[in-house]
Specification:
26% of the residues lie in helices and 19% in strands. With 224 residues, it is α/β, with parallel strands linked by helices. It has one domain: P-loop containing nucleotide triphosphate hydrolases (Rossmann fold). The chain has a nine-stranded mixed sheet, with helices on one face.
Length: 224
Amino acid sequence: MATGAFRFPSINHRVLTVGRTGSGKTQAGAWLLSEAPFHEQPYIIVDYKFDELLNGCDRIKEITLTERLPKQPGLYIVHPTPEVDDDAVEAFLWDVWRKENIGLFIDEGYMIPQTSKSVRALLTQGRSKSIPVIMLSQRPAWITRFAVSEADFYMVFHLQHHGDKKRIAEFTPPGFAQKETREFHSKWFDVAKNNTFFLKPVPSAHEILSRIDERLTPPKKRLI
């Protein structure tokens, strides 16, 4: 299925990574994040489920929904409580929209209400504001339609439900959503280049954390 050359998303792109529980999407999302340009601007991880992988890196700084947004490049993580913090999350994301030049990594995007106007604005207008988005979801049928329609890249693992496959099929090449993959393998669609690939499993969690740690470590000053 490979055509053309594979490329990583840049600072103006949004990526949708979907797949059933246990399919490998969270680790794949972390891999994409490990190569994101967080050396150029802050990236904030919106982590509803306290994922073990990303919370295993001490260099990712924890913030709250009510404090000032970070100014320095790097990785930051916030832990909303589903439903309880819906209003706080909405206000937080509007702050991101206003501030601009901040990346977002949203794990289990279906936990943000589909009626969220901030998410709609971020997905439709974020390119001009340098607000890249990586969104993960086990159920693409449950997330806002804009997360699917506005994606520049699709990373699709095994999906069980017909409704999920149908949602992805609306915005990808014919037959793409229906093609089966091996365990922890995925399908990748680059919209602008119209390129599709089968991808092997991403690096291990240890390798991903090492890559993040390496990129977050300030370079040593040279002695004169």
